[in-house]
Amino acid sequence: MTLQHWRHLTEWPLTAAAAVFLVAYAWEVIGDLHGSQLAVAETVIWITWAVFLIDYFVCLALAPQRWRWFYTHLFDLAIVVLPMLRPLRLLRLVTILAILQRSAGAAFRGRVIVYVVGAGGLLIFTAALAALDAERGMPGAHIETFPQAVWWAFETISTVGYGDYVPVTEVGKLVAVGLMIGGIATLGIVTATLASWIVERVAQTEIDMRAATRGQIRELSKQISELKALLDEKSA
Amino acid sequence: MTLQHWRHLTEWPLTAAAAVFLVAYAWEVIGDLHGSQLAVAETVIWITWAVFLIDYFVCLALAPQRWRWFYTHLFDLAIVVLPMLRPLRLLRLVTILAILQRSAGAAFRGRVIVYVVGAGGLLIFTAALAALDAERGMPGAHIETFPQAVWWAFETISTVGYGDYVPVTEVGKLVAVGLMIGGIATLGIVTATLASWIVERVAQTEIDMRAATRGQIRELSKQISELKALLDEKSA
Amino acid sequence: MTLQHWRHLTEWPLTAAAAVFLVAYAWEVIGDLHGSQLAVAETVIWITWAVFLIDYFVCLALAPQRWRWFYTHLFDLAIVVLPMLRPLRLLRLVTILAILQRSAGAAFRGRVIVYVVGAGGLLIFTAALAALDAERGMPGAHIETFPQAVWWAFETISTVGYGDYVPVTEVGKLVAVGLMIGGIATLGIVTATLASWIVERVAQTEIDMRAATRGQIRELSKQISELKALLDEKSA
Amino acid sequence: MTLQHWRHLTEWPLTAAAAVFLVAYAWEVIGDLHGSQLAVAETVIWITWAVFLIDYFVCLALAPQRWRWFYTHLFDLAIVVLPMLRPLRLLRLVTILAILQRSAGAAFRGRVIVYVVGAGGLLIFTAALAALDAERGMPGAHIETFPQAVWWAFETISTVGYGDYVPVTEVGKLVAVGLMIGGIATLGIVTATLASWIVERVAQTEIDMRAATRGQIRELSKQISELKALLDEKSA
What we know:
The structure is a homotetramer.
Chain A: H1 3-31, H2 35-62, H3 66-72, H4 74-81, H5 93-103, H6 108-135, H7 146-157, H8 170-203, H9 214-235
Helix pairs in contact in A: 1-2, 1-5, 1-6, 2-4, 5-6, 6-7, 6-8
């Protein structure tokens, strides 16, 4: 079996595992689980993690040049290894983002909008989960419930930052830094998409002034070829 | 009567209804009405809502493919149904934005500026109303007067977020999230418009280096056709 | 004397008057003047204001179509009338920005950078003055010294908004709103200039793939004309 | 020896000196050194400073037109002179940014990403050092440890500004202003890079509609030349 074949086969199962992970993690954090329920949620999380671990090793085994694959897929390794550390579990989010990227429609700009909305929503949801997980019950912490965590995530990703909820733990601050970077990137993508749309709209006002297209040049080239043929005919 | 005809007929009455709604809502919230005045304002608000509800059902009845129209106009349904919930009344704002989009002038970039200023102003005004409506009198709330609400709306849409006024109710926070998204979009549109203008100005410095236009290619094509005609003439 | 001639003659005196105004206003506000010094500063401010008032009426008198000039120069009227209201004196800033626009160099992008730095600096300086003027000594106000006001202006224009200094008076909040709008515009101009530069740099990597220029098309057109001349010659 | 030769020779030694400076400064500030360790760190910092001072004077001596070089390299003078003032030492950062610019890869957009990540990281690191150096132990200051300073730097560069940590000293505020400007520039570069990428991707969807390239025009020109040759041949 080749690496491509394996990747194609495991695409949907891995997507499902990532979704199951997110649901179990959300249930554990939002529900503030204890006892047997916590055990169930933790078990589900570890099983989904094991699925990704197995996938990583199978891919490594199937790769034609193993060292090269290892070096070029260090990020995949991080996604597999780091979630063992509880707070970094939200890195699993990246897997779900990959799915989103695929399911987005055909037109490029439409795809960008779907992606920004989807990625932004997932980022806020997962960051709120992770921050709540890290902050709840800590001395001096403000983020105690899931709605508060979501509100804080919105404040942070939009760079408003009122300061009514601020992470006080180190993990919470790490999550906040991730959200800030996400906020800058989101703002950039929104602006850039709008810019490309406005540039196009402005350009379309005067058709004759629009840039010459390759199709037009091909048309011209055909006309010249016909001319040449005409000359050759006459010469004959 | 066709759907297009109905839409054309109801364009101005619906615009007027939206404007009446905004005035009545502003009067109710800013004036902090009680007794018979509150009853008048509420009656006006419910009448404008009924107008939009009737328009929705007439459009649905006139649509050639009703199910298709229903699916592709879910957002219209939300605008009609959700304002029953008091805090979501500001969704009516969308109707007024549609008018603004139409009344903006001819040149595309000028239209963008008019739209941004108008939409930004309406967004701040309506969000301040909705936040004041939700926050006033709540325990721990800071937003108690309309000027405070407008100041808070400016702080939020510009993503400055000093934190001197922060919404504490759930509805107030929802309004804030809407404003943040509006702020990001506004910033994006402003930047993109400026970018398209700067790109154009930079490109115009050297005329010979500007992109070849379709008009020029058409000119070339005409020259080649004349050449062909000349050759045909000689062959004859 | 024509309007153009008058405008040309008064260009430098008006610039000087605007600069004198700014110095006097800064001296009055930063120095927190009292007694005879305050009288001197106020006198200078009123004289510079009178200079602009006279210029406005002379322009109006010289304009060929007075009503048309009046309608198209409402902003000039605002700059002249509003500074009578003490807090809106910073509108005089607009006059100085006009000078800056002229003195910026020749290359368009270079001019944008000079303009952004100059306009941003002036905006921060004048807003700090106006906010200090409005806030100092008010109950509950935080902005009491000029360095504090400048720090607050930087926080606001960059949309960071820590919330350690917040305007509490209505005029102070108005100044803040102006700074926020200025901040958004500055961010937009910086981004747009960078975007135009990056688009250009990316486009220059493969010369053959760059857009066809008008100069190239003119070259082609010449070649075809020569061909036609050659054919005509042969026909003769 | 020419100026170019000297610059080429000293490129790597100066880079090393800048790196040594950064390490020594970080050690001094993070370790909150006292006694002999402080003396060692300070000595290293002064030696690296002397290296840059010597380089400045050698460059000045080798320059063909000394006054012209002096005027066009005022910024270099500032980098050399200002670090004598302890808090402005982070200006040395500029030297390291120059190295980063060189070591970034070949493709332009890739280079921009490497540069933004590298410059952003360095900016945050150095600003956190400088702010910690200025704020630690001051009355009313919040920034007391290096992790707090880094967290504050992230909050500021992303313009979130919760307000949980705010510089209270003049030097700390100066550092903050630098970070804000850096934040705006970073946001601008990220947006602009994304914009250029999206514009390109949108343009590539329909190949025939893409702008005509110079390569295509050259092809056309060749075809016409062949035509001319054909005609000449016949005439002969």
